[in-house]
Structures
1.
Amino acid sequence: MKNEQMIQYQVRLADPAGHRYAIRLTIPRPDPAGQSLRLPAWIPGSYLIRDFARQIETLQASSGGAPVAARKTDSHTWRCAPCTGPLTVDYQVYAWDLSVRGAHFDESHAFFNGCSLFLAAVGQEAQPCLLDLCPPAHARGWQVYTSLPSAAGHPDAAPLRGFGLYQARDYDELIDHPVEIGTPQCISFEAHGAVHDLVFTGRVPNLDLERIAADAQKICAAQIELFEPASRRAPFLDGAERYVFLVTVTGDGYGGLEHRASTALITRRADLPAQGCAAPEGYVTFLGLLSHEYFHTWNVKRIKPAAFAPYDLSRPGHTELLWVFEGFTSYYDDLMLLRAGVIDEPAYLKLVGRTLDQVLRAGGRLKQSVAESSFDAWTRYYKQDENSPNALVSYYTKGSLVALGLDLEIRRQSGGARSLDDVMRLLWRRYGRDFYQGRPRGVAEDAMPALIQAATGADVTDFIARHALGREDVPLKAALARVGIELSAQPEHTRPTLDVRTQADPAGLRLATVHEHGPAHRAGLSAGDLLIAADGLRITDAAGLDRLLDARRPGERLSLHVFRRDELRQHTVRLGKPAALRHQLQRVGGGAHGTPA
Ligand SMILES: [Zn+2]
């Protein structure tokens, strides 16, 4: 197709102080019955309706210089009046969301996801697109960082990291390559011959780029070896020339969003290593996040649930399989740090113990399965409130324990000959490798037991029925013992408990969650109550409450004063035994069937 016949998006960095992008969309052959334009209601990988269209401030359509009427037909859609020539749509997008999901722009940098900026020409989503990135008027020296390929062969094709034309085979690809523009700190490395860029935006003095690149290189190489042990071909070479980690560094952020050849991450400044210093403890958290999103390059960006092949971005897409796509990814993220040699086995086992702490602490796991949690991600996991620990289970954390349990069960049944790795490779061959090469099919909702059997010979139907579709805890103690790892649990401390989560409040200590069946619940306390005194003594923070509880024993009664809204209430709580358990995993011998490591 000739360039002048392609749908084109021009992006201008129009107003840094006001955080506004100016977009010009040109549709060469609009629908003669009237062209509809639609922005996604959600962004793949983040399962919540975001209503990105609410940030479009103004929109004008024209054709051949004459205005074309455009009116909204739903929250995300505009319909233009019929016109004969090319349709031009100028619109302004407000971008002040420094998350991995949205768009952001000020005088220091610009970052955007296409879901926030690019209206789809409805009915023409399969058409190739051009993206014209214009250099900013207000700043010099800015460069472009994205995995979206340059419009090769075009006279205005963007040079590497430059402004100009980029291209996408279709709309789905256009919105799957976030873009960072500015003056970030950057380093590149190769893993099995494939280029990877690490791009850090935000102030980080003395950032140890070399150290991060060396560790990331090992992690990426280990993952490529897992999925493609023979060819060692990186997955993103099916359309992109490089993989890009776009990292935003803030004081207290954490999060990531996966894309087909890149990821957007947010991390804490304090979790990054500085030159000449020992890496901070939180560095493993950062590497785990990087590993997690990179694993998604295979698992969810190419191996997908059928519900996401293709995505319908106008409404929620329901699948019971996020325990596979997020849970398995959460299992492998830390495991790949171990296999890559970035952490040692005791450090890895500590991370598994921490996951067990998180999963087993909350009673919601006995009410909701990870399959149910996946299906209801849109309305429950992504809309958590004070009662969520009592009502929900995480398909990430429990999903990772299901993956560990499955891995150990496959190893047991196959006498150590097969593992979850074989399942991932089968999924990759059957669904992932050719996903963007004309074979876009996804995993059916009920396919996992048969796929695991096909990959390994192991029958895990009952295991999945109990622990993924059902709500039973994953029986890890005996399974870990078989591979030489002892699992034990001790109380976190000896202090008696109210069994609540609290949050700091200038007026006292706020009860954030009251765990069901715990002492506070039985005494009639509620989430939201403001604790101001215990046994007639003022409580101002969690440490003060802990000191008071340290002097008490389980079974004793404690008088509490709380405000519920503006009403003072008195409750008598019978203190409980320490509820929180700390799980420890320790190697005590060699395993009969080999360990996941
Ligand atoms: Zn994920």
2.
Amino acid sequence: MTLYHSATSPYVRKVMVLAHEAGLVDRIALVPASGTPLDPGSVPLEANPLGKVPVLTRPEGGALYDSRVICAYLDALAGDRFYPQGARRWDCLTLEATADGMLDAALSIMYETRLRAEPMRSDAIVAGQWSKIARSVTLLEDRWLAYLAGPLCMGQMALGCALGYLDFRLADRGWRKHAPTLSRWQDEFSARDSMAMTTPPG
Ligand SMILES: N[C@@H](CCC(=O)N[C@@H](CS)C(=O)NCC(=O)O)C(=O)O
């Protein structure tokens, strides 16, 4: 398999964390690729017309995207270990969707503040996107700690990558101050080998 990969992409990181946890890393060749909404750069558009990474090409042919589809595919290859069955399944999927939504909002802030020409930047857009993240952090601190203490699942891996991205790119906004227990969970989760081996470069 070939994974179009960027070391700073939190969505790529989700795939790599799962690959480490599932023991699939040796079966995946990494090809550097990256783009922005302004320029798809080196992302293979014939494989993903959306111009985003991650993209996974399979030995049997056909490219997969986005990160949720790739993670579900890799988990199936590894024997269905990280998307639980029964009631926990829906919690796991909702947690992954929450983490991905936090990432979508964080990326939107990065694009607004780094890509858009200064006179056209909107503080209101940035504030609105940050409020999505802040509400999610509050919800996770208030209602998800018992789930987070349970067996490893893809939702937890996605959350570890989302909170890691906030630390990487938006640390000055101080999400940890408002969620002390979630902050401790993130510290412990980040110590896993799969997270340590995929930390974005300084
Ligand atoms: N929903 C997608 C999001 C992927 C995504 O936004 N990747 C970023 C890199 S972190 C990208 O390639 N952005 C380029 C663009 O938005 O055109 C996923 O889960 O894979």
3.
Amino acid sequence: MLALEQARHSLTQLGLDQAAAVLEGRLETAAHKQLPYADFLADLLGAETAARRERYLRTRTRLAHFPFQRTLEQFDFRFQPSIDERQVRELATLAFVAEAANLLLLGPPGVGKTHLAVALGLRAIEAGHGVYFVRAHDLLEDLRRAQAEHRLDRRLRVYLAPKVLVIDEFGVWPYDRVAATAFFTLISARYERGSVLLTSNKGFGEWGEVLGDPVVAAAILDRLLHHSHVLNIRGDSYRLREKKRAGLFAPVPPTAPLASPSPQEVMRTDHVPA
Ligand SMILES: Nc1ncnc2c1ncn2[C@@H]1O[C@H](COP(=O)(O)OP(=O)(O)OP(=O)(O)O)[C@@H](O)[C@H]1O
Ligand SMILES: [Mg+2]
């Protein structure tokens, strides 16, 4: 008993809290099953490692500030046939994150842009990358204020640190020139350093209007699209699916593709999965 107490105390002192907590039970099981010492030790350390990974994932997920948690497994690809499932599976390998390439998810409301961005963000966390989720409006307002208060450099660090920056709902509101220029500074600084996952309901042709300056918009798009994948989702809103089934909505005509240039034109072939 003394040895057990001593072992538990040492484990706690070493910061192996989970191992300390399960020590007695695992010892009993090992004795009962007459496990070799090495198996017992591997089992005990495995419990500690699993608990640590769980804690790590929980903390990283909390720090990412996702609006909700959705996984790729929860995504119904049959509902959204305009999405190439194979391309999404390829993206889920996170090769694009390793290459600091970007992903742009475009399409009308409710087609699953944020769902896919969150799901890929969660995958990135599981792979050990830092992820931060921010709504475009909050991001640009934050940058605009920092610029106006001459502390943009310091503020940018928050958005430069994560390997994956998810910028959601770009283009819902128009932004002023100060915000647009600050956004350009951010995208330039992240260029070839970290991935941007951006969702938008606006086509690239409308970015000039959104940012109040076509030159700044072109400069931002140039950097964002250089190494990028574009998913142009066309289809019905998942949110309205139940309502439509109940006959509350008239059938919606097929959604027109987003404004030019088309994703095929802008999509770089160097990162398109074979
Ligand atoms: N194909 C799908 N399979 C399962 N759930 C889906 C699918 N598409 C969307 N959803 C769900 O529908 C809801 C709306 O999806 P999401 O928020 O991703 O849409 P969005 O494209 O980001 O829309 P918005 O442009 O309005 O922000 C979410 O709860 C999401 O999980
Ligand atoms: Mg969304």
